[in-house]
Amino acid sequence: MVELVADGLAGARGGQTLFEGLSFTLRPGEAMEVVGPNGVGKTTLLRIAAGLLAPFEGRIGVENGLRLGDISHFVSSLNGMKSTLTVAENLRFWKRFQAGATERIGEGASVEEALEAVGLEATAPLPFGVLSTGQKRRVALSRLLLEYRPLWILDEPVLGLDAAAEQSFSGLIARHMAHGGLALAAVHGSLGISGARTLRLGALS
Amino acid sequence: MSAIYFRDLLIALRAGGGALTGLLFFLAVIAVMPFALGPDMALLGRLGPAILWIGALLAGLLGLDRIFAGDREDGSLDAIVGGSDFLSLVLTALAKGLAHWTASLLPIVIAAPVFGVLVNTDWTASLAVALTLLVGTPALSLVGVAGAAVAVALPRGGVLVSVLILPFVIPTLIFGVSAAYGAGTDAFWPPFLLLCASTLFLGVVGPVAAALALREGD
Q: Per the UniProt record, which residue ranges are transmembrane (chain B) (predicted)?
């Protein structure tokens, strides 16, 4: 069980401070939607939370001092898959790569189970590049299941998904939260998760 | 880190992966040399090992900038860098360098003795070139990952990577060519051992520098 704590966090991009004085605690089983207009620093906040960017000020981390990158999955607005490899080859790579992390917290689903969870088991032998936009996104999201990590950091996860896929992804997040997982997601609409908290980023005056 | 190695190798071997472009470029460089130098067989034979080495070096520079650029474009680089501590990032860079070497330079090493015929190089010299390429070219890939990591954020980083990397592999070129010329004599071993040493040295420095560049970049 991990708890994500941000304290006096400020984020900057290209020398410009985007947000400051951000403090929150995300407890096991909680999800937080980061909302706000374009350019307000949602992605910057997610990249800081994923350990890819250093905070401009303040700190963010988990209680027991584990490395953020080891306990989190970060799905950015890009899908992170190779278009010339098949869906199964892509996912097998991520399964093996993520299993090589320094701190492993738990086992994950097999490639077949992960694809089944997003309803795309039939696409396994196809090259990733031939899938539709929404299917690509669903394959990218299935990476979350390949290795259990408590913190899911998602940048516009449901962009391009149809209503049914959106709903089924909400179900995946709900199941993750029910097992004590955390989710931090930048969204424009809503993820449709009951009890999700909202963090509103506003433009600095 | 074998996952990265096999994935990169698979991508290189798939259509459009570019594994054979290096070999074709190498063939092109070797094949036009006799036209430029004229029908002097003795001159060609003397220059042969140097031409083969230069061809391999230039062909090896070709794919270097793609080592990390593809991963950055499709977003996998974030997941790779985020999910690795410093040591595993070094190993990842090492695996990527080795995958580049296997896909782009190993075919050249194997083809070098055959292409040596085009520049009138006898078998002893050709085999010596292949042996020195086998030992020396990994340095190009392994220091190349550092250049690729530095230039990863630049949209047209290809030429920059080549210019950054070339000075570091000049010793490799010098020792490789002089060992090839010394084939069959006592003059082979000193440059050959220095060639091994420079590969081992760059094989450590390159991946560490690449990991530093990836970590501090962005």
A: 12-37, 43-64, 101-120, 127-153, 159-180, 192-214
